[in-house]
Structures are given as C-alpha cells and as structure tokens.
C-alpha cells in the first residue's frame, strides 16, 4: 500500500525564516485552576523536552466572561521573566483583536494597543507570530494591514497570521499587506473536515500559509465518542493507533500532519504527560487507504 511521508522534524512558518516544530502547544486553559508560574514553567519545559517549540497563546485566554483577560499571557510572561534563556528556544505566538466581552475590533487604535499590551504581559520585546484572532467585519483590510505592517517594521512582531478567517477575508487582508501572512489558524480535526474539501487548505498551499489546527481532537469528542459518526471516526483512528502502538489522540494528530499542506496540530492539554505524548505522532506513518478511511468515516458517506 502507498505510504504517505512522515512529517519533517521542523517546518518553516510560511515564507518566513522562522523554523517551528511540526506540532504546537496551545495555552487556552493555562491560567485556569489557579496555576502558578512554577507549574506553568513545568508545562513549558514539558513541551520543549518533547521537541515542541511553537507555543501559541492569546490575549483573551483566561477570560471567563467577566474577568481574567490577558491572564494566560501574563502567566507565560512570568515564566519567561524567571528563565530568560527560554525565550530563544521558543517560537512565541499570540493573538488579539477580540474586545471582551464580545465585539471584534481591528480598528487601528485597538490593534496598536493590543499588540503593545501583549508585549507587556509577555515581558518580551518581540512576538514571533502575531495573529488576528477573529475577523472584524467593520474593519477595512487596508487599515488593518497598515497597522500590522507597522508592527513588523518596528520590530515588535516578526511574522503575521490570522485565525478563524474565511478564504475571502484571508485574500483581502493579504492583498494589502507588505509583510504577507505566514499562517492561518482554523479549527481542524478528524471530526471537523470542512477545510479538506472547501478550498481552505488549497488556498493555504497556494499562498504558502502554514495551517495551525486548533481543537485537533474535536473538543475532546474523540476521547469519548458518543454519536455514530464520532464512534466510526474513532474506530478508523484506532486501527492505525493499534498498529503503531500509540493512543487514538496521537493517531489523530498524525492524521492531520499527513496532509500535504503541513498542518500543525495545536495540543490543547495542560498536562505534561499529554503534551509529551503528542511528539509520538511524528513517527506514525499513514497509508492512503487508512487515511481515507478516517475521512470517509467523518463524511458519513463514501467518496464520489
């Protein structure tokens, strides 16, 4: 059977000169449960020890609907301030553009303030990848692009990305940018497969964008499948997981990484053992038959 290639040990982030690990760790829940800076540092080290260098956070992580805005960034900032040597080992990614409790804001004034605030909370002079978290329909992409280009020119940001943007929104923003986008961050998992057939990943390959997949385990549904569809996808993943002696979680990461767009799954767990486990996905080799079996289970119908 035709085998798909294993992911490389490192990837280039879009057309930038930034090398990243082929799997990332996300800090959506880093500031929960009263986690201390020492505990957060242990998780950062767990990621680095597993070969994961891309760490992804956002200014809204930690916000519970009333308070906590910026807490995940601030906690990571404490870790970096306590161990300055960590900074050079990490590709630091964050996001902004959501003004709690809900409105999206990519106005020039807000974006400038958001980038400055993230730099302060993270206690760094430069962010490697700054991403617009969700699109603001009321912002003209030319105005947004001007602010982002200025941030790169000023050395505050190395590279630019977007999250949850449609293909048209990506194309519009990229059209006005001097420093072109290097990444897009949509939701992708074996249970959310829209991007495989709606053109999102094709556009990413065409524009040279690295897809960063949030919620690659389907929001936890792969761990505890209930519906007939979820159970079918889990069973298809388990075939490969059993053959390689890995968990279903690892098989799911590897399934995404087998796609030619170079999908980088973002591990969402805040447990050191789960973060470290993800690295095993780099050794799981898929055949076309097994890969498409997962896709067919997710589609709920045969391929045409």
From TrEMBL:
Q: Which PROSITE patterns match?
A: ALDOKETO_REDUCTASE_2 (PS00062)
- The EC number on file is 1.-.-.-
User: Which Pfam families does the record cross-reference, listed alphabetically?
Assistant: Aldo_ket_red (PF00248)
* InterPro entries according to UniProt: AKR (IPR020471), AKR_Detox_Biosynth (IPR050523), Aldo/ket_reductase_CS (IPR018170), NAD(P)_OxRdtase_dom_sf (IPR036812), NADP_OxRdtase_dom (IPR023210)
Q: Where is the NADP-dependent oxidoreductase domain?
A: 22-291
Q: GO MF annotations for this entry?
A: oxidoreductase activity
Question: Per the UniProt record, which residue ranges are transmembrane?
Answer: none
UniProt protein name: Aldo/keto reductase family oxidoreductase
Q: Which organism is it from?
A: Novosphingobium aquiterrae
